[in-house]
Amino acid sequence: MSQDSSVSSLSTVKCQCGIATRIFTAFTQTNAGRRFYKCSKPNGYKCDYWKWVDYPLHSRVANLIHNLKKENDNLHREKKCLETRMADLEKYLASKIEENCERLDEITVPKSEEVVVDNEDVVVDKSKKKVYKIWIVIAMLWCCFAAFWVMK
Ligand SMILES: [Zn+2]
């Protein structure tokens, strides 16, 4: 796509080659927004057929369309530039995150193993204490039952 025109669709108008022409839109200063027919063959193979589709636009309207097109092109260029910068930043951040994760793994792996071992010990200790308490309660109940039985 050139900057002075853009291609839209095939038309029913035929060129000197006998094939359907394409409709282009001009974006030059004097004819911005004005459509024209042109041969649809690739450059180097096209004939010289060329004809306006639209009547000439008012110069103020053509100038406005031309300026809007320029502004739109600039915004597209800026967007592409920002997308490239963003992609570079994402790559940079991904590499930094990976680097820091590797460092974090080096730092925390030994400690986390100790913690797991400690946690297992604590869990084992807690479960042993629970069983111990249950046995004490059973023994006390048995003593109460026995005492109650003897007093009777
Ligand atoms: Zn042609």
UniProtKB/TrEMBL annotation:
InterPro entries recorded: Znf_GRF
Residues annotated as domain GRF-type: 15-56
Spans through the membrane: 134-151
Regions annotated as coiled coil: 58-99
The keyword Transferase is assigned to this record: no
Pfam families: Zn_ribbon_GRF
Keywords, alphabetical: Coiled coil, Membrane, Metal-binding, Transmembrane, Transmembrane helix, Zinc, Zinc-finger
Protein name: GRF-type domain-containing protein
